[in-house]
Amino acid sequence: MNFVEERIAKDGVIKSGNVLKVDSFLNHQMDVDFIDRIGREFYKGFSCKPINKILTIEASGIAIAYAAARHFNVPVVFAKKSRSVNISGDTYVSEVESFTHKKKNMVVVSKRFLNETDHILIVDDFLANGCALQGLCSIADSAHAHVEGIGIVIEKGFQIGGQVIRNLGYDLQSLSIVEAMDESTGEIVFRNQK
Ligand code: 5GP
């Protein structure tokens, strides 16, 4: 097991509805050494690409994006969630359905911070059905920015998102892929990625 899988096995909690809680170290209380290490791993995976910006979605993606950006020495842009959008033409907008809250949000990025000269790495904490990533990719497309790669901390391989994103041709690298998880026994099985 790699360090992400080990930490999930130790501290992850399986909830009903295919939800894995990792709020003791990743997205509520944050273990900064662990998140630093995630940033380093994303740098290792994508340092061969000409990345000049990291794109993520608030809120859980921000710390991960920051940790990666320290290594690439580039800025982070995070898409903001909003129930309503002022269609003034100065933002890129996409609709994203939240996996955990089941409600739709508009996500927006200012046109000042993303354009056709950008080569971006998209990062997020989880990949489930792929709605959040597709929203971010659509914003990148609207900006004519080039998506160099996508880095995910925890992909849930039994949900459709990973397959959808890979079939679209993106270079998707997940630090862990949960193949199966059992709420009654607490057992988590990871995909062997070697
Ligand atoms: P997707 O859009 O791929 O269906 O879901 C990804 C988003 O939903 C992520 O940004 C993440 O915040 C949230 N998410 C999806 N699955 C889980 C999960 O099992 N646990 C937690 N904590 N968040 C999840």
- Number of separate strands: 10
Coarse shape: globular
Uncertain residue ranges: none
Helix content: 25-40%
Bound molecules: guanosine-5'-monophosphate
Instruction: List the secondary-structure elements in sequence, H or E.
Output: HEEHEHEEEEHEHEE
Mean pLDDT: 96
Cα(first) to Cα(last) distance is 11 Å
Q: Radius of gyration over alpha carbons?
A: 16 Å
Q: What is the SS-derived class?
A: alpha/beta
Q: So how many helices? A: 5
Strand fraction equals 25-35%
Strand order of the largest sheet: 5-6-4-3-7-8-9-10
Describe the biggest sheet?
Answer: 8 strands, mixed
Structural commentary:
- With 194 residues, this protein is α/β, with parallel strands linked by helices.
- 28% of the residues lie in helices and 34% in strands.
- The strands form two sheets. The chain has an eight-stranded mixed beta sheet, sandwiched between helices.
- Helix 2 (32-46) crosses helix 3 (61-72).
- The longest helix has 15 residues, at 32-46.
- The chain is globular.
- Bound molecules: guanosine-5'-monophosphate (5GP).
- Guanosine-5'-monophosphate binds at residues 19-22, 27, 60, 99-100, 124-132, 161.
- Guanosine-5'-monophosphate binds next to strand 2, strand 7 and helix 4.
Q: Key terms for this structure?
A:
alpha/beta; globular; binds guanosine-5'-monophosphate; 194 residues
List the helices and strands and how they pair.
Elements lengths: L2 H9 L1 E3 L3 E3 L10 H15 L6 E5 L3 H12 L3 E7 L8 E7 L6 E7 L8 E9 L3 H12 L3 E11 L4 H7 L4 E10 L6 E3 L4
Parallel strand pairs: 3-4, 3-7, 7-8, 8-9
Antiparallel strand pairs: 1-2, 4-6, 5-6, 9-10
Helix pairs in contact: 2-3
Bound molecules: guanosine-5'-monophosphate (5GP).
Guanosine-5'-monophosphate binds next to strand 2, strand 7 and helix 4.
